[in-house]
Every structure is written in C-alpha cells, then in structure tokens.
Amino acid sequence: MTDQSTNEDLISDLLTLLDVTPTGEDRYEGRRRKDGVGRVFGGQVIAQGLVAAERSVEDDRAVHSLHAYFLRGGSEDHTVDYTVDRQFDGRSFSNRRIVAAQEGRPILNMAASFQRYEKGLEHQVDKLPDVPGPEELTPMMEEREALAATMPEPARTIFLQPRPIEMRSVEGAHWSHKEPAPPRSHSWMRAVAPLPDDPRIHRAVLAYASDMMLLGTSMLAHGLSWARNEIVGASLDHAVWFHAPFRADEWLLYATDSPWTAGGRGFNRGRIFSADGRLVASVAQEGVVRKRS
C-alpha cells in the first residue's frame, strides 16, 4: 500500500468516524474508533455532536460557535448516543443543545449556534505570526518516533499510530519539552489527504483537530509532559468560534498560549489562521492539570 493510499484511508476512516447515524427524531449514534483503545478523544465527541446538530439546521445556516463541557471520560468500547434539542430558530440564528451519552450516562453537554450568512462590518487585529512555514519544519511523526523509543508497550504502539491530521510544530511538540519554557506554541496542521468540498465537513474536521496541542500548552511553563507520565490531564470545557471560510486539508496555523494555570486547572487559548493570514477560528479550553505524585 502506498503512502498516498494510506493517507486516503486515514481520511476515509476519519470521515466515517465523524459521521453519525439517525436512531430517531433528533437522535443519533456516533461510531467508535475501529482501532480505539482507552478513553474517547474529546475532539471526536465535539465533532460528532456538531454533525448531529447540523442535521437539524437549515443548509444556509453555518455554525459560528460551540461551547462544550466534558462531564465524564468516554470509553472507546462503546458507541456514543447524541440527542439534539432544537432550542431556538430565528430569522438569522438557530441554537441547539446537544447531549452525548454512553450507556445512558451523559459524557458531554454542548451548545451550538448557527447563523445565516450576511455581510457586515469587518476588521481583524491579530495577524499571522511570523514563524517558519510547514515546509521548513519536521513532521511531528518523526518527533513521535524519537520519543517512542523510550516508551514501554503498549504506549509506544498507541503513540505511533498513523493520524489523519498532520502536524508540524515550530517550537517542538509540548510533550518533548523537559525544561520550563514560555507557554506559547505554534503548530501547522492539515488533513493528510483531500477532503470533500462540503464546508460542514471542514468545520467538523477543524472541531476535531482543535482539541489537539491545546491543553499541553499550559504544561510548557513547567517542563512537564503527559508522554513521560509526569502529569494527569483531562479537558473540562472547550469552545470554538468559527470566523471565516477555510479548508481543513490546507495548512492552518494553530497558535496557542496559556495565560494562567493554578488550582489543578490550566487555561489555554488558540487562534487558527489560514496560510494567507486570515483568522478563521478561535478556541478556548480549560482542563485539569495535576502533577503526578
């Protein structure tokens, strides 16, 4: 099998994973990863919940924000059930509440707001950070291979699984840092193979990828890493604001920073830019970050 066909298979598997199956009126089932082990990835539940909510909204209304709270860790041994509550439909905006559950127990609550396109005032303060382009950087899988040599099984195999989102970090992946550093990072990311043209698919893939590289930013200031089993971490909440059209199969720069960490929690922010400098999305997340004793 060629590398290209492997990448296409990874994207096909991702799109299948993020799709949801109707099980009743405004009720859906989300698949589990066919090679999954352990806890469900938070970005998967957010993306599946978004896809479920979009099924209840008119096609001319695109999601402009979502706000999610993680209640319990999900298990990859089970599918995820989604219930969509049509809370509001106005002339310009629609709002949906989504509950994700496994075996009858909620694991995530999410609200999503949708807007019919309209022209309006425009400005953008933040500019594309002056960092090296993706072609100048080492693929993150090579960083993973270097660290995996020091990891025991089965963690090594899991760590080296091929991923549908390619990432290249300017400063190096957060889990590779052993000394305290400023809690800021810049990573280029894109789907490893072309995606269909449907903008809803690109938004779902970005929602999935937005949960990567974010919580670890708060650990940069402390020189600690979950990959070295030094911390215990879990996302508490996650918000995404979609600003402008984009393609998730073209390079996007994910600029993250952590302005505050204390009390067992870390707060992280993210800005996502297209390669031509447009701010296409903003992200915020708070999570549990505890030093392992």
Protein model, in words:
Helix 2 packs antiparallel against helix 5. The chain starts with a helix and ends with a strand. The longest helix has 16 residues, at 3-18. The model has no long low-confidence stretch (mean pLDDT 93). It has a twelve-stranded antiparallel β-sheet. Strand 5 and strand 6 (105-116) form a beta hairpin. The chain has five helices and twelve strands. The protein has helices at residues 3-18, 42-54, 140-148, 155-159, 199-209, and strands at residues 20-24, 27-30, 61-70, 80-89, 93-102, 105-116, 165-169, 184-191, 231-242, 252-262, 265-274, 279-291. By secondary structure, it is of the alpha+beta class. The chain is 18% helix and 38% strand. It has one domain: Porin, CATH 2.40.160.210.
Strand content: 35-45%
Unreliable stretches covering 5 or more consecutive residues: none
What is the number of beta strands?
Answer: 12
Which class of secondary structure composition applies to the elements? alpha+beta
The CATH homology group name:
Acyl-CoA thioesterase, double hotdog domain
Gap between N and C termini, in Å? 44 Å
- Please count the helical segments: 5
Query: In CATH terms, what is the fold-level topology?
Result: Porin
Largest sheet: 12 strands, antiparallel
What is the number of independent domains? 1
Rg result: 19 Å
Shape: globular
CATH first level? Mainly Beta
What is the CATH-assigned architecture? Beta Barrel
Strand and helix order: HEEHEEEEHHEEHEEEE
